[in-house]
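Q: Given only this backbone (73 positions), what sequence would you predict?
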């Protein structure tokens, strides 16, 4: 079992407004838009689960405070 810690991003789907700015800036194209709606009827972004470098560009691009969290172990 590997103990390697990889960077990742996480979206709070209830705070996201689906503007897709994070998708546009991600150099690794590892963010997608959900088919599902959140409780405000937006399609939230989500991390596809692999390939994030922890660069933080999505965090700085997002206009919704707290919607994106980037973790770089
Ligand atoms: S931190 Fe960088 S690589 Fe990771 S999802 Fe955000 S923009 Fe993409
Ligand atoms: S930039 Fe923020 S509000 Fe826009 S889709 Fe990405 S997480 Fe959602």
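A: Predicted residues:
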């Amino acid at each position: 079992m590997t103990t390697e810690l990889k960077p990742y991003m996480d979206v709070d789907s209830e705070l996201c407004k689906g503007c897709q700015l994070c998708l546009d800036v991600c150099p690794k194209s590892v963010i997608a838009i959900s088919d599902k709606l959140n409780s405000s009827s937006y399609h939230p972004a989500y991390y596809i689960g692999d390939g994030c470098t922890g660069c933080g560009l999505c965090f700085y691009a997002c206009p919704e405070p707290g919607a994106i969290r980037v973790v770089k172990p």
